[in-house]
Amino acid sequence: MPSVSIERIERDITAISRFGFNEADGGVYRQGFSPEDMAVREWLRARFAELGMSHRMDGAGNVIGRFDPAGRGEDVPAVIIASHTDSVPASGMFDGVLGVVAGLEVVRTMKANGIEPLYPVEVIATAEEEGRFGGMLGAQAMTGHLTREWLDAAADERGVKLVDAMREAGLDPSRAMHAYRPPETIRAYLELHVEQGPVLDTEKTTIGIVEGISGVFKWMVRLIGKADHAGTAPMNMRADALMGMADFAHEIPRIIEEEGTGKSRITIGHVNCKPGFPHTVPGEVDFTIVGRDLDHDKMKALASACERVLAAIARRNKLHFEYEQMSWLAPAYCDTGLISLIEGKTKELGYSYKIMPSGAGHDVQFFCEHSRAGLFFVPSVKGVSHAPDEWTHWVDCERGTRLLYECVCELACNEGALEEAGQAERV
After folding, report:
1. pTM for this one?
2. Which PANTHER family has this protein been placed in (predicted)?
3. 3-state DSSP helix/strand/coil percent for the chain, to nearest 5?
C-alpha cells in the first residue's frame, strides 16, 4: 500500500516557505493577515481543490478543507488535523507549516489507498496563531473563546488594529464570531508540530507525545529606588533598583527547587532600566516575569513565592516594589484517550518516544476543554525555532506524518477507536 511521501512533504513545505521569504536574512515574514499570509491561504485552497476536497475560509480566516468521499455531510463529526501557516518575523520554514502539510499528505495517502473514512477528515490552517494581535484568533473563534470586546480592542505592537487588518485582507471582522464549532461536530482534534525546544534532539528521541500545555502567568514588575551619581554615592548608601532585580534573578533556581517541578519555568525576558545612563545608579527598573508549569497549583505556588521574594529583596535594598499581573492562562491537558492512541501507534511503528509537556502555546490548548484533543512533536535541530536557521530533518517530518496518518486512519475508520485506546479522561 502507498505510504506517505517525503518528496511531496518537502515540496509543499518548500513552496510555502517562499511566501514572505526575505533573501537578506533568510527568514520568513508571514505575519497574520499580511498579503503573504493571505496568499498562502489561497495556495492551500488550490491544493484542497486538487484533492477533490470541499474547502472554505470561515469568518475568522481559518482555511478548512474537508475530505468526505462518501458524502456523509456536515452532520457527521470530523477528525480534524490542524496547525497554522502564519509566522513571526524572521521565522523558519517548519513552525506550524509541517502540521498543515502533513494533513495534506494524510489525505493524499488515504486517497491513494482507496480509503473511505466513516468520519470526514478536515485539514485546517488556523488564523493568526502566532499572536501578532495578542491571541490565537482562529482557535479562539472555533472553540468559543473569542469575544467581541477582545476582537474590537486587539492591536499589534505597531498599533494596527486587528479589525482593520482583517478588513484590509478582505474579511468582515463581525463574521469571526460565526466561526464557532460546536463540540459535537468534532470527533477528535490532532496537531503535529516541531518541538521548538532541544529535548527530543538532545535525547535522540523520535516523537514527543504531549500530555498538556503548560499554564502561563505574566507579570510586569517595577522596583523603585533612587537614581544617584555613580561616582559619589557610596555602595552601602544606594537604593539600586537594578541590583534588586539581579538579586531576584539569582533566586529563581531556589524558587523552582522549593515550590516547582522539573516542568517549571520562570523567565525574566524584558528589562527597562531607568534612567539608563552609564554614570547613574538605576533609580527604577521595570521587568517582566513569565512563569510556567503544567500543574495549576504549582503555578500558584510559584507566583506566591515570586511575590514573597521580591518583597523581601525590596526591603533589603531600600526599594519600593509593585507589580501588575498582565495575564494568567491555566494549563490545558490533552485527552488521555488520544495520548494512549498516539502512544500505541508510535510503538507499532517502532519509534522511540517520551511523554512530555509543551512549554510553548499551540492551537490545541483551546480545543482541550472543547473536544478530544491531542498533540505530538518531532525534533527541532538544536531546539532552534522562530529563527531563519530553524530546521527539522526530513526523515523526522516523514516519521511524524506517518504517525499522524496511522492515528487519523484509526480515528476516521474505526468506530470504537477511542474506546479501545482507553476511556478519555483529562488529567
Report:
1. 0.90
2. ALLANTOATE AMIDOHYDROLASE, ALLANTOATE DEIMINASE-RELATED
3. 40, 25, 40
Cell of 336: 488521555
Q: Is the dihedral of CA 383, 386, 387, 390 positive or negative?
A: positive
Place of cell 496518518: 405
For the chain, the average pLDDT equals 95
208 vs 377: CA distance, rounded Å: 5
Query: CA 382, 383, 389, 393: dihedral to nearest 10 degrees?
Result: 70
Residue-range domains of the chain with CATH: 6-213+331-421 (3.40.630.10), 215-329 (3.30.70.360)
Neighbours of 7 (CB within 10 A): 9
Q: Does pLDDT of 353 surpass 50?
A: yes
What was the pLDDT predicted at 219?
95
Residue appearing with cell numbers 524572521: 90
CA–CA separation, 399 and 405 (whole Å): 10
> Residue 216 corresponds to which amino acid?
V
Measuring CA to CA, which residue among 193, 141, 195, 191 is closest to residue 166?
141
Give the separation between CA 60 and CA 180, rounded to whole angstroms. 9
Q: How far apart are CA 273 and CA 261, in angstroms?
A: 31
Sign of the Cα pseudo-torsion (63, 69, 75, 78, in order): negative
* C-alpha separations of 186 from 67, 183, 327, 373 in Å: 14, 6, 29, 10
pLDDT at 422: 58
Question: Which whole number is the average pLDDT over 211-239?
Answer: 95
